[in-house]
User: What shape does this take?
Amino acid sequence: MRNITLFLMLGSALFAGGYKIPETSLNSVALSAANVAHVSSADSAYYNPANMVFMKNESVMEANLIYIGLSDVNYKAAGIDIESKKENFIVPSLHYVSHEIGGARFGLSVVSPAGLSKRWDDAPAIYSAQEFSLQSVEVNPSVALPIGDKIAVALGIRAIYSEGVVRSSSPIASRDMEGDSIDFGYNLALSYKPISELELALTYRSKVNLSIDGDATLSYLANSSTSSASVSVPVPALLNVAVAYTLESETTFEFVYERNFWSEYKELDFNYGEGVNPVTNVVFGTPIAKNYKDTNVFRFGVMQKLDALTFMGGVVIDESPAPDATLGFELPDSDSVSFSFGSRYQINEKINIGLAALYSIREDRTVSNGTLDGEFSNANVLMVSSALEYKF
Assistant: This one.
């Protein structure tokens, strides 16, 4: 099994600061994930399950396909001008909200909450990051209950399966690792609607420690060995505070403040089983400092409802958690600004379809940390989402 989780911790962000993927539905792509306070479609099961209480009493499901295109990141230094490979992916997701059952609403989301892929063909990048790739699947059931007419609360369970590959090679050393993991966490949500036009929300997703187990083939000089390998790294907790206001024209504005608790990620520490040469173990098993910092994300979204059409747009300002001192080819991360737009069309009472796109522009980043002394550029991301929602 391919240890995408190992990569998740080592590797480069696909869509946001760090290695999380905030956009897992059509509305989240169209609104730059500013769909927490006002969310009222099937993806409320993931973004704010408390809002399921305020939805129409019917079951609703959304099936979604997201195309993700990663540009070829450029690195320039004295005498060096190299590019990573371009990457293209199709990522599916599913969201479901039940009708009322005994006064409660139940939700289920199947999404990819984190991911990355970074591959280089040229030195010196291949010395540490010839390939870093991550795939993950989260199954997130939830239940929501009303507290009076204006307040609702929700609780969910996070089960994350992840797998990936880490490869590096140099004239004197190489590493080839694979592994996988199943890990658990929880999420909480609170919604408050003091008046019909104003919606307030507070959501929290817990930290999930990815405890990866797999196999590794390591070589250093004349020594080569294969053994078990393990590592534990956190997917950080995050807190969302959101407010939305809807005008008489059915125009809704939403602002989301997001706090990501990346400071839990202090180091990357691989452990190997018996049979690894002591010198080789020092080369590949010495903990690698990461020292990530907590980050702030600011999301702005606007939605305009018409008769059969709904138009959406958004902007997100995102910070990178990776400090200069620990930045490497496996994570050429930087601050970013993203712009998004999309629409839905109501075919009939039961079915609507939609299309959305998001483009993330990452800042060029100059690094001089003793290992790297150059500039990363062109680390941009395009997302295109298509979805079908069905009510029954």
The chain has a mean pLDDT of 90.
